[in-house]
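Title: Request for sanity check on Tyrosinase copper-binding domain-containing protein prediction

Description:
We are preparing a figure and want to confirm that the structure record we downloaded matches what your pipeline produces today. Could someone re-run it with the sequence below and paste the raw structure tokens into this thread? We only need the token string, no images.
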Amino acid sequence: AEPVLGTSLFRQCRPVALQKNKTEDCCLPEPEREPILFKFEERKKMLVRRPAHELANDVEYVNKYNLAYKRMKELPRDDPRGFLRQWHVHCAFCVEAFLSRYLNGTPTPYPLQLHYSWTFLPWHRMMLYYHERILGSLINDPEFTLPFWNWDNQLDAGAAQMPQMFVPYNPPNPAIDNFYLYAGAIRDQNHYPPRVMTLNFKPLEDKAGIIPTPEETRDANLCMVWNMVVNKVSAQEYLGVKYNTSADFSAVSHPNASAESGGSEILHNTAHEWVGNLNNPAFPDNEDMGVFTYSGRDPLFYSHHGNVDRLWDVWQTLPDGVTVDGTRTRKEFDDVDFLETEFTFFDENKDMVRVKVKDTLSNAKLGIMYQDMSEADSLWINHKP
Ligand code: C2O
């Protein structure tokens, strides 16, 4: 069997390359103490993440969330809980900054890249888990939950727009302060509300500058989600291929990305591109959301990934499928290389925690659930393309 990824990464980190010979140093501070091992926490009740579009006018929630980001942004540069370091976590693990090791200690030939393979969903789930705990601890609310951007929802007006709480209120709502949920984030402002996101919008908008009608958008979105979630039955189709330690992901445009990514990741790319600045010469790296290096600098990123994570839960409940090659079963990988793969995150106490993929496979075990959206989900689940 192929060895699995290791974790002793932090002393071997390098700046990552961008367009125009620019680099970005996303290397993380050294942990102050020995890394600790992940443990499931006994929780008295499940934490429920709610959809951003339903929270837009929840004054208490939005103000509290804003305050958490304010405090996160004010932490000193070397505090791993600080906003800078939170986006560096994503940048470092996802843009080939770290050299990685097999669990037996031997270095892997190429640096770590957590997209384009079966590591995509587990890693981002735990990124959210710790990001949320840090935000909660900064406002002394252990029950704080991140909102999710419910962009697949074609039932509720506003769900598939950039969520109101992440953009300036218009007209302003004097009771709500959401400054830290958008300040400094670089986005394509042509895609601000009331524009509804068309998943897979690029062919239309890029080639012809055409803005699809609401009906076209709705149909395109239901088709896209059906195709990328319902129609991806095996774990490989949905999560992505086995991590290939001998692939050089840092090649400028990774040639096999679409063959290796699972449906979950292909679907998720569209919202990144919708929010980021594509085709804007002032932002050659498609900042912020249009490039993995800078995505974590936009607070909306974490909400976007909330929905990606939620859809994994939904995918697990969908029925098996049959194709010409036989029956495919909707169950997770049981490959030991997958289960034993290990990542590290900083927690709310600034401890570095070592987490194995096998501990990430159930949100219920992590004490987290998503508000039931089954009415909206059923539109794409039952969509016949
Ligand atoms: Cu690590 Cu949505 O990307």
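Thanks, this matches our download. The first helix runs from residue 52 to 55.
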